[in-house]
Task: inverse folding
């Protein structure tokens, strides 16, 4: 079955016949006892958190407390090895909302399909809300707390019709007995940016703020005052997120529907930092995942590997709906579910920054393939280069104030073609074992696994020069009102065009 996305350049929307794709679905037997009639079907609520990793009490963070998220974990099932298939929001969300690898549906380049070049998902694939609408569910997608009019964050890289959401919030449905599939988008780690958060929001909403000197950092980040302060602000956004989730739980209780609602909490990428967001290290792709609700086993911890694209299939099955055969995610609560022995992730172009990395993670070992190894880890990118933490890291590098590990992992002029880590012994992924003869068998095995996965999922590989040119028209034009950003993005685009010849793509066969 060919399932590559179709790309077109005319303006206008598609999705005129999405509901016709319901044929060819396979019913999965779920571990819940939900009855199929509409009155007994549970509500499904996704709590999607921006820019946040596993820094919750129930995941072992001891500098702050997150009682409301801990409650969800205590009353539901917590997954300790849940991973995103992409480390940046638009690609992760494109995969999330279809239950498909973003590489398979052609939505793998961050912020693509926004200009004249349009991306359409393959004909048999439709977003999950469409399937829920066809099943009689009310569908919604809103920010929490409300930050804008209209729908909440979506950020899909393909063409879609806003009518797949009935409203921003489930409370807007006419019939309170109608089951709903809802998403609430929480800003998470994004809240830490700007003086508004530091001076007004944080001191008002938190009883206790995090002290920078108490912060524990990964070893590849220096204990510089600005870096420590930023991480402290990040932990405070975790506390704030916990408070918001408490409010959501309280509201569901007031409505009398908490115990009729399956709540699924997860993130769209890790902390926005030098080795987190946009990168396939665990800091960028490992996500919290907690499921609580009717039929979900309470106070349970699962350590098996799961992917965030599994949540589409799992949600449909919880609602008693068939899981389409084209969907690549699995119902991870099914009685006949076979646990994964590996999960996969992909990073491609982010904004104007050309890259392609792929990873396979077995829980014990992690293999990363860099397809542009002659380029540095911290390639020029306007989005990240304007952040104070990145500016400070570059200053410390220029001043020679980083240690050997930090220099090697963040500022080496080139990256290894292959990276291999023993995650159990080295959870921060600092010691590359790819050239260690003792791990040759593991290296070959994971290299082959990645190759098979890329072939099976029809990985399209690097973006063509023509598509890059079309996408860069949008990236440059969107910054016309910001002279500094406009100049930076334009200069970066020219750099990457030069690098296309000087520092080329290295295929997997090499």
Result:
């Amino acid at each position: 079955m060919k399932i590559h996305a179709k790309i077109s350049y005319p303006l206008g929307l598609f999705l005129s016949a999405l509901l016709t794709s319901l044929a060819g679905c396979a019913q999965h037997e779920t571990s819940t006892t939900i009855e199929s009639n509409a009155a007994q079907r549970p509500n499904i609520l996704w709590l999607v958190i921006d820019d946040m990793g596993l820094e919750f009490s129930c995941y072992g963070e001891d500098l702050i407390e997150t009682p409301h998220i801990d409650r969800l974990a205590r009353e539901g099932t917590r997954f300790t090895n849940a991973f995103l298939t992409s480390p940046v929001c638009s690609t992760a969300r494109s995969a999330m909302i279809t239950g498909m690898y973003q590489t398979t549906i052609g939505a793998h380049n961050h912020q693509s399909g926004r200009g004249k070049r349009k991306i359409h998902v393959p004909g048999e694939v439709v977003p999950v809300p469409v399937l829920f609408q066809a099943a009689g569910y009310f569908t919604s997608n809103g920010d929490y707390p409300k930050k804008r009019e209209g729908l909440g964050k979506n950020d899909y890289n393909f063409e879609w019709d806003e009518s797949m959401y009935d409203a921003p919030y489930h409370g807007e449905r006419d019939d309170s007995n109608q089951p709903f599939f809802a998403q609430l988008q929480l800003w998470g780690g994004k809240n830490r940016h700007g003086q508004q958060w530091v001076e007004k929001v944080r001191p008002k909403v938190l009883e206790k703020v995090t002290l920078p000197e108490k912060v524990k950092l990964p070893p590849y980040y220096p204990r510089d005052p600005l870096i420590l302060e930023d991480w402290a602000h990040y932990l405070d956004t975790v506390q704030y997120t916990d408070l918001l989730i408490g409010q959501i739980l309280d509201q569901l209780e007031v409505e009398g529907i908490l115990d009729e609602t399956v709540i699924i909490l997860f993130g769209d990428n890790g902390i926005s930092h030098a080795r987190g967001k946009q990168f396939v290290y665990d800091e960028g792709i490992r996500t919290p995942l907690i499921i609580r609700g009717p039929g979900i086993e309470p106070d349970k911890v699962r350590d098996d590997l799961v992917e965030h694209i599994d949540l589409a299939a799992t949600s449909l099955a919880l609602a008693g709906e068939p899981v389409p055969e084209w969907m690549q995610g699995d119902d991870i609560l099914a009685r006949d579910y076979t646990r994964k022995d590996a999960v996969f992730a992909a990073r491609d172009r982010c904004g104007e920054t050309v890259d392609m990395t792929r990873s396979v993670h077995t829980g014990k070992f992690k293999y990363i393939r860099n397809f542009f190894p002659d380029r540095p880890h911290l390639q020029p990118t306007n989005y990240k280069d304007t952040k104070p933490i990145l500016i400070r890291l570059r200053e410390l590098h220029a001043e020679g104030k980083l240690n050997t590990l930090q220099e090697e992992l963040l500022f080496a002029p080139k990256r290894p073609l292959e990276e291999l880590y023993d995650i159990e012994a080295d959870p921060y992924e600092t010691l590359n074992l790819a050239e260690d003869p003792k791990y040759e068998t593991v290296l070959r095995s994971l290299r082959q696994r990645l190759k098979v996965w890329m072939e099976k999922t029809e990985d399209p590989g690097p973006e063509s020069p023509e598509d890059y040119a079309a996408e860069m028209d949008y990236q440059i034009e969107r910054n016309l009102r910001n002279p500094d950003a406009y100049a930076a993005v334009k200069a970066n685009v020219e750099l990457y065009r030069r690098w296309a010849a000087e520092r080329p793509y290295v295929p997997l066969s090499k």
Summary: The two ends are 28 Å apart (CA to CA). Confidence is low (pLDDT under 50) at residues 6-39. The chain has 13 helices and 15 strands.
